[in-house]
Design a protein that fits this description.
The protein is an alpha+beta fold. The chain has two domains: about 5-265, Lipovitellin-phosvitin complex, beta-sheet shell regions, CATH 2.30.230; about 270-410, OmpA-like domain (60s Ribosomal Protein L30, Chain: A), CATH 3.30.1330.60. It has six helices and 20 strands. The strands form two sheets. The protein has an 18-stranded mixed beta sheet that branches.
Length: about 400
């Protein structure tokens, strides 16, 4: 089965709409930037992939962007953003499998640094793969009335390293058309909104890689919901269809929908939270669980969580431990979580990676089944034996390394 991570088509659209507040003077839109501001953007994409006009698979993709405005100079905001993509297979034509509700499997993480001016134009170094859609939106330097239109050039950047062997960021230009459509409803409220439409029709030059696109065509349609009070886009909705005709004569088509929204969360007092959770672990007498602050937030390490040999089936007693962990997680319902699996260094690395992923999934599925979080708020990762916390040459060290970590995310 061919899988291409083009899920990030919609990931950055809301990013471009909401990385910084927008000042509205009458109907004039312009970007303004507040140094030190931090927030996140979440999008979910429902995507179907067709190979030579035959459905290959359907997937849901969860995209998370954590953003910080690191400075402002002459009205241009400097931004640092972390892009994380995760996905879950909904249907696979090769096996005929229709999956149930489960957590999202970690896919990839990108870092990006860029500037944006007051009208929305980006300045970014050529090595960055994110954001994918660039110079969308950009605003005209004039007042806008309902049904006013404007047009601007933009482009997409894609990561084809794994799928096609193309090592450099792959650029696809387009022209975007905008319409200020007036008030539209989003989640029981109305907001000023504008549409963004662009079409792609390209016969690109050959590039170095195993295979490469010879023709690219498609269309994207979005509605963006704006909040004048907070000066940001609060959400967007999108439909898309994009086709690649490849040098190996395959036609790969992506069809789908996406939606995303800006999410605010309070800053995490990590020292206080670690102490609070540690007291709860002690009060509940949960064995072999340690809590510490990490870069992403607060991590609960379930050391020596026990499974059947070479299996992701938990041994008796482990679910009771998870019930007590769930009670702690329920104290912080507004925070998303990552469930990470780890293994002792005893076996082939690929096998250990798959085993750690499946055990993390077992823990995540148990939390989902008990309504600790919804599926779009749990991400699953597997590290194999890459991150030991103890000496693998001893039984005690291997016991500690066979662990699952649950991280409560700050942003």
């Amino acid at each position: 089965m061919t899988k291409i991570n083009l899920s990030v088509f919609a990931l950055f659209l809301l990013l471009n709409f909401s990385l910084a507040p927008v000042k509205v003077a009458g109907d004039v839109f312009e970007f303004r930037h507040t140094p030190g501001s931090r927030y996140r953007i979440l999008s979910v994409v429902d995507e179907a992939v067709f190979i030579n006009n035959v459905l290959s698979h359907r997937a849901e993709i969860l995209n998370r962007i954590a953003v910080e405005v690191t400075g402002v100079a002459e009205g241009r905001g400097q931004h640092r953003a972390i892009f994380q993509t995760s996905e879950r297979l909904i249907y696979d034509s090769a096996s005929g499998a229709q999956t149930g509700i489960t957590g999202f499997q970690w896919s990839r993480e990108y870092e990006s640094v860029f500037e944006r001016d007051r009208l929305g134009y980006l300045t970014i170094a050529p090595q960055y793969f994110m954001p994918v859609v660039r110079n969308v939106p950009v605003f005209p330097d004039r007042q806008l009335r309902v049904l006013d239109t404007w047009r601007a050039e933009g482009y997409e950047i894609h990561d084809f390293r794994d799928t096609f062997g193309i090592q450099e960021p792959y650029r696809i230009p387009f022209t975007a058309d905008y319409v200020y459509v007036g008030e539209r409803q989003w989640k029981e409220r109305t907001y000023p909104a504008f549409s963004v439409t662009y079409r792609i029709a390209s016969r690109p030059n050959a590039v170095a890689g195993r295979i490469y696109p010879t023709r690219i065509y498609g269309e994207f349609n979005q509605i963006v919901y704006w909040d004048h009070q907070i000066g940001q886009a609060v959400a967007y909705e999108e439909t898309f269809r994009l086709t690649f005709e490849m040098s190996d004569r395959r036609k790969i088509e992506f069809r789908g929908t996406a939606q995303a929204e800006f999410v605010e969360s309070e800053n995490m007092n990590r020292e206080e939270l670690v102490s609070e959770i540690a007291r709860e672990i002690e009060r509940m007498n949960i064995p072999d669980v340690n809590v510490r602050a990490v870069e992403e937030g607060i991590s609960l390490s379930l050391e020596d969580i026990r499974f059947r040999a070479d299996s992701n089936v938990m041994l008796p007693g482990e679910e009771a431990k998870l019930d007590r962990i769930a009670a702690i997680l329920n104290r912080y319902p507004d925070r998303d979580i990552v469930v990470s699996g780890h293994a002792a260094n005893w076996g082939e690395s690929e096998y250990l990676l798959r085993l750690s992923q499946s055990r993390a999934r077992a823990v995540a599925d148990y939390l989902l089944a008990n309504n600790v979080r919804s599926a779009d708020r749990i991400v699953i990762r597997g590290y194999g034996a890459e991150r030991p916390i103890a000496d693998n040459s001893t039984e005690e060290g291997m016991r500690r390394n066979r662990r699952v970590e649950i991280t409560i995310l700050e942003n």
